[in-house]
Amino acid sequence: MIILYHPQSNSSRKPLLPFSLLAVGAVLEGQHEYCIVDGNLELDPLTRLDHLIKEHGAQTILAVTVMPGPQLNQAVPICRELKQRYPNLIIVWGGYFPTQHWDVCLKVDYVDYVIRGHGELVFVELLATLPQPSQSQLSRMMGLAYKDAPGQPVSNPLAPIPQPAQLPAFNFDRLPMTRYVRATFLGSRTLGYHSSYGCPFFCNFCAVVNLVNGRWLPQTASQVAENVELYHQRWQVNAVEFYDNNFFVHEKRVAEFAERIMPLKMAWWGEGRIDTMLKYSDTTWRLMRDSGLRMVFMGAESGSNETLKRMDKGGKMSTEKTLEIARLMKSWDIVPEFSFVMGNPPDPEADAQITMEFVRQVKQVNPASEIILYLYTPVPLAGDLYDEAQAEGFAFPQTLDEWVSQAWQDFSQRRSRTMPWVKQPLQAKIIDFQRVLNAYYPTSTDTKLAGLSRRILRLASAWRYHARVYRFPLELRVLHKLIAYQRPETSGF
Ligand code: B12
Predict the structure, then answer these.
(1) CATH no. for residue 318?
(2) Residue identifier of the C-alpha nearest atom 71 of ligand 1
(3) Ligand 1 binding pocket includes 244 (Cβ within 6 Å)
């Protein structure tokens, strides 16, 4: 029996479909007995896992998907406890966190193997050799990290990414689908979908590069449209959020998809690149709008062209392009959602200042633009920015216990206050700016925020916004609490 376990992501939000496990499960169908345990749906995941292991006995394999942040926080104590109770239980980790920090994961006795990258096929290969693979078998499995004979962590090179168009379809019957349908600003019955692997760019602040090394492999437009139609028919879904790192890479695929789903009258949302979408034809924009595209999340990243160059955004990004797409999307009535990475080394003060001013320009051009401000958070081996962060004294934890400490949980969720190159007053400045901006331009994604509350927030913040007096907006803090304002960056992916 293989138990595919998704630790709880975030207790404060409704559960989202665990696509990592749907993808892994799809290749097990018909070959292995398996079940999915989604920690987001369980009151007591440890007891549930324990029951399953007891029921299925010694041959059980626990395969866990782990993202940094809350998932890691739940995966560590649960795996540790289960290994103590069942020393012969084989535990395999996969997903973003172990892909990047495989060596740290393999230092503990409660993680036996790590699957790195898009590893569903490698996982099947590993299963064929369990429970006692030889070192030579292990050393040949691309995408596997394991312990060598003396017990030291070693990793093989990443496996080629499987072609999603040729992978078996997700088996949604493995999950209680209705529990994932939720109301969002897009529609009363929203579900997520994931239609492509990777991203063809090498932005050096992004963890996706470590997973796919610049490759992007999609499902076909008709596969995606068929699944959206299935959502619509079986679960009366009226809105879809695409979790793809970059849904809009291929214009023809997007246009064909839009055309195919047009009759369904759905609303949809996805993540894309500014420079890619600026090249789209009017015909594609019209198809996207008419098929229900409401909002596109895009990394604008910085208000400084110099920083953009250093981020390796492919050399094609500029602040002028951000303004251009803001204007263009206004004309199509599709909301741009821009994320910015603030406080980049080596001069985080100046960097943040320039970006804050730039955000104001974006709002002037298109006031409906959503703005998401993140603090620069290094990912391992990702170029100049990481090198500079290291030079300032940054180092990743060397143990899982340290990773689950409060300070590193904050780091993983991009709200750390202890990054060596970002000094406290700057952190506070960014938070204050965000507070004023969010009050003056309340997000449209918070469906509970009524017209009157929006007007109150705007009125209360107008003088600060106009006079650029962002410091200590205590009154806005109180207002945001009273109105239960939901910040867009905490509700995003
Ligand atoms: C949906 C999502 C979420 C959901 C959680 C998902 C859920 N079901 O509950 C929510 C919104 C809660 C979330 C939160 C966060 N997320 Co998130 N999230 C995503 C997103 C958009 C999609 C994930 C997905 O479904 N992928 C599709 C599947 C098919 O791919 P996959 O997960 O990589 O799985 C494949 C392989 O990794 C591997 N694999 C994965 N697990 C396993 C397990 C086994 C056993 C095996 C064999 C293989 C395997 O095989 C799978 C098939 O190929 C990704 C970006 C992306 N497109 O992947 C970001 C992403 C993973 N998130 C990210 C981050 C940073 C976060 C946060 C930590 C930060 C934040 N935004 O506050 C938070 C907190 C994390 C948490 N645990 O709560 C980053 C990770 C960066 C990093 N440094 O590693 C990503 C990459 C976004 C980004 N570009 O920055 N997230």
Answers:
(1) 3.20.20.70
(2) 493
(3) yes
